[in-house]
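New here. Invent one.

***
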Amino acid sequence: MNKKVLILIFLATGLAWMLNSCEQSKADKPDAENTPSKDSLIKRGNYLVASIGCNDCHSPKHMGPHGPEIDTLNMLSGFPSNRPIPVANENDIKNGLIVFNSDLTATIGPWGTTFAANITSDETGIGNWTEEQFKNALRNGKIKGQDGGRPIMPPMPWQNFRNLTDGDIKAIFYYLKSTKPFKNVVPAFRPAGVKS
């Protein structure tokens, strides 16, 4: 092959690599044009919360003609603190059953009894949380997003949510922080074998 052709190929390859590197570094840097507005984050967060099933467990429900329907006045407020603690037949749990209460806000299984958290913007929900705490809860399964805290218990599928993008987690957080605050102190997790 001609020496001039080799030099031209080398130069063209180098130029293509440099242009690609410049474009890549521009894409990696956030700018005002690529930063979503607060309103668009909230809108995306609302969409994500509705589509990934947060209401399935975190919203109290009432029975409708087609089964449980979300109680829109208490949406995302978790297990209602004024309800009695559900109890399951010990033999059912020993035989491998997992029991949900009628509106799916409490679950009893081999791990114990768990209650869906209040995730509204109230201080009894996530009102005092930082975005980093929220990310830690979803990515690492830590209760209240605290590193030294206990793990988030089933049925919360944080192992699936850890795959959300940072942008999706931010959008969900912004949406939840924009919700109507609802004061509701959800009961604490009860390990298996603990009564009352």
User: Anything to note?
Assistant: The first helix runs from residue 3 to 28. The mean pLDDT is 88. The two ends are 85 Å apart (CA to CA). The longest strand covers residues 61-64.
